[in-house]
């Protein structure tokens, strides 16, 4: 079962150029991993199962980025895309924590009129996409502007990235059949701690 921690570790490897197999496939513009969290993977090695599912999820997110304007100069290299995702994920996780945890964050999204999208992210099958404008009031503009400045891109590009990464993060955090998702808040804290030490 893919976890956010294993996804982040894989991204860290890719950002440092250590994950060449993933880097070679990340820029094809295809959204490859949507809905894979509930699919059965028939391998006997649990580590191989983790890597396969995590790689599909990352390919999906990076494919979504490559399919927008992310393939331009600022994101021509897969390592840059992975580094960008490693900055987007904490923004999403901090927002979830500010809501009081995953349950409250999901409720906030539903109140924004995203009931169908949220249902697709926490349920089996393909994750519905969202557009950046629906997230306009969710994230602090100062954080978006700071990230845009760091990567030399526009704020709208950061918002596009958040619209790609938010469904992926929720998809992974809700891969338990236990819908109180208590483990998700623990995972959120663990991943933030991990990223703070980079």
From TrEMBL:
It comes from the Bacteria. Pfam families: YidB (PF20159). InterPro entries: YidB (IPR045372), YidB-like (IPR027405). This is DUF937 domain-containing protein. It comes from Alkanindiges hydrocarboniclasticus.
